[in-house]
Design brief:
Distance between the termini: 40 Å
Helix content: under 10%
Order of helices and strands: EEEEEEEEEEE
Structural class: mainly beta
Number of strands: 11
Amino acid sequence: QVQLVESGGGLVQAGGSLSLPCVASGRTFSRNTIGWFRQAPGKEREFVAAINWSGDSTYGADSLKGRFTISRANAKNTVYLQMNSLKPEDTAVYYCAAQYNNARFLGQALREYEYWGQGTQVTVSS
């Protein structure tokens, strides 16, 4: 089992920045691809970014490239989502998730992820 806990959410003005850490515990966290997803009110959960176990490969949603960056520090069992130039449409609950070991490399589908955190709310005011 892998347990994931997100934090760092809150209220921020448009144009501001937030860094969301996802702290993991449990078995072999350092071997899992970790993804970030978000879910806005009334919308489906969507892929944001993913990072492989070593941290040398990442993939992000096209619409967010240039503003959101994913990174990881395995020594701290932590994956980070750095969000810059935030917009009101970025308002959502942000979740981190650990991918199944045999899933597609840096997959973007929810079904490819086995363990999920409880989420952290990000609200961007205009």
